[in-house]
Amino acid sequence: MNDILQYKDYYASVSFSAEDDIFHGKVIGINDLISFEGDSVKTLKDAFIEAVDDYLETCIQINKQPEKMYKGSFNVRIPSELHKKAAIASAIYNISLNDFVKNAINLALMNKKEFEQNCLTE
After folding, report:
1. Higher pLDDT residue, 29 or 42?
2. What CA–CA distance (Å, rounded) separates 114 from 122?
3. Residue 22, SS3?
4. At what angle do helices 112-121 and 97-110 cross, to 10 degrees?
5. 63 Cβ partners below 8 Å, 6+ apart?
6. 7 close to 122: Cβ distance less than 8 angstroms
């Protein structure tokens, strides 16, 4: 699992540059680019909070919606054999392939520990 920070329902991925000896972060799940950095965990977290607060204040000032809007549809590329198995399973359960995938995603999100363990073994 990647290192993720969370503040006010905003999430950021974090990486470390050994060459520069600095932490870098980027807010995920929004249309705009919000990045921040710090030379320690504390300064990185403080910079993240400051970046989110500044972003929200800027959005208020320019009368802009800060959140990324998700349409609820996306393309998924999977191996053809997995596609076949999912299509057969959805027919057995008498649901659409879309509903099968939606339920599978929901199940993965409800069972995060098992999902993480499965991801680590693949």
Report:
1. 42
2. 13
3. strand
4. 100
5. none
6. no
